[in-house]
Structures are given as C-alpha cells and as structure tokens.
C-alpha cells in the first residue's frame, strides 16, 4: 500500500454480474486510474460467479493497471483449505493487500451465522491466516455505531482491537452520517492503546437510493439535519445530487481537518461523483512536471 503524507483517497467497487457490467466497471476503473488513488478494492460476494468476478478482475487490476489492488475476502462458505487457495492465488497474481472479513450469512445478513464445518468463526482468524500465508498488508472492517451483532460499544471495541492486534494494519469504517461518529470510533480504538490506522468509508450521496443504502449499511437513523436537507429534494434528481455532494464534501472536509489521512469512497462502479469529490477536496496528486515524468 502506498504511504501518503498528504491526504489521499481509495475507491471500492463490486464484482460485475455479466459482461456489460464488467465493461461499466472497467470504464470506471480507467477513469479513476489517472487520479492516483492509494488503492482500489473489489468486494467479495456470497458465492459462485460473483466470487469469480472478484478474483478475475482484481488479478486484471494487478496486471493491466497502475493501481494498487486490494481484494476483499470473507470466511462465508469457505473451508480453511479453500481460503488458503484463494489467498495463494491472490499472491500469485500480484495482489498483496487483503481486506479480511467474516461476512454475513447469505440471504439474510442478520440470520444465524453458521460457520463452514472446516472454516472460521471470526474475521480475527482470517487475519491470522492471511498473515501466516505471506507478506500481505491486511485490513479489517470497523463499525462507528457498533457491529449490529455486538452487545454494546465496549464489546465491539474489544473485538475490533483484538482483530487489529491479530495482525491487521488498518481498518475501514462502515458508513456513518457525522464526522463525530467516526472520530469517536477512532478515539475508542486509541483509548484501548491500539495505534492501527482507521479510515472512513464514504458514500457519495447522489441519489435517494444511495441515501437509503447508507442508512441500511450504517444500521443507524440519519440525523434530522440531514433529512431536512435531502428529503425535500427526493423528486428533483439534479437538486438532490447537488445538495448530497455538498453534504459529503462538508463531511469529508471535517474529517480531513481532524487529520484523517485517507477517505475510502464507495463508487458503485461509477467514477463521476468520486472524481468530483476528489477535485473539490483537493485530493488529486499533482501531475509531475514533464521533465521529471520523462526521466527514466
Ligand atoms: P467480525 O470482526 O468477525 O465480527 C462479527 C461480530 O462478531 C461482531 O459483532 C464482533 O464484535 C463479534 N466478534 C468478533 N470476534 C469475536 C470473538 N472472538 N468472540 C465473540 N464475538 C466476536 N461483506 C461481504 O460479504 N463482502 C465484502 O466484500 C464486504 N466488505 C466490507 C467492507 C467494509 C469496509 C465493511 C465495513 C464491511 C464489509 N462487509 C463485506 C460486511 C461484513 O462482512 C459484515 O458486516 C459482517 O457481519 C462482519 O464482518 P467482520 O469482518 O466485521 O466480522
């Protein structure tokens, strides 16, 4: 993973369902590549073709682009032997960054979690497995409002810190609404004596659908000020997008002012909103002067 002294950003995609989808994904990847994100990631689905899509496309990013690839990987429906196989494949194709996750039960995310009989119970074990298998940079997930299955924030922080100490280099936070929600998570981890890098996940709020998705994934109720700003614009796509991007720009500016070194954007396999935010926030690496660029 690139180290950055200036604030930077990373971008997240999901695996394509079919060929036209794959073309859309690759257009977005190519449009974001010149902005030099710290890394790009592709999420890992519940099974079958979606998993193949992650594995195939992340390998292509490693071989065909200048981007640093990070593969998401979950323990869902995988034996340890299969996980070893996938991790070994990532290393073989040049993917050395892995976001290690437990994943949710397929179908109903809040259904009973049943581990594979020869599999893993928690992300912490996957972090250890990835570390054991090679020289990987490992990330994990974190939840500003606590993971929905955690009894309370103290228990949530306890297990988050355990999985970071198991060998993770950083955590990416689930979506949230206010900078303070993320900063309090960062404080809880620091107060537990853990110095791992905490990065915020950011959804460009371009449509009512992206707002609904943010509410669903965050597991929290949006604050009244946000509803007041966006709800009246639900039937006016242009005005919603403009106000939504203003809201996100304000959130990101606050995070950067608090020393957050990198913002992780959910792209939904489109580049436009992320490009706009990167431009507004001044996150784009300046192009090197031509003489420097031409030097061997
Ligand atoms: P864990 O860290 O294992 O935690 C799960 C629950 O168990 C928590 O409540 C935790 O407190 C508790 N716990 C942890 N360890 C222990 C222990 N030793 N004993 C008792 N309790 C424990 N899902 C996908 O399917 N694919 C993806 O690509 C994907 N990408 C994601 C990216 C990000 C940035 C985020 C935030 C989430 C992502 N998810 C993805 C969703 C994630 O898989 C789910 O939220 C899942 O429910 C939790 O995964 P985890 O890795 O946080 O689990």
UniProtKB/TrEMBL annotation:
Keywords: FAD, Flavoprotein, Oxidoreductase. Pathway: One-carbon metabolism; tetrahydrofolate interconversion. Its cofactor is FAD. SUPFAM superfamilies: FAD-linked oxidoreductase (SSF51730). It catalyses: (6S)-5-methyl-5,6,7,8-tetrahydrofolate + NAD(+) = (6R)-5,10-methylene-5,6,7,8-tetrahydrofolate + NADH + H(+). PANTHER family: METHYLENETETRAHYDROFOLATE REDUCTASE, METHYLENETETRAHYDROFOLATE REDUCTASE (NADPH). Belongs to the methylenetetrahydrofolate reductase family. This is Methylenetetrahydrofolate reductase. It comes from Prauserella endophytica.
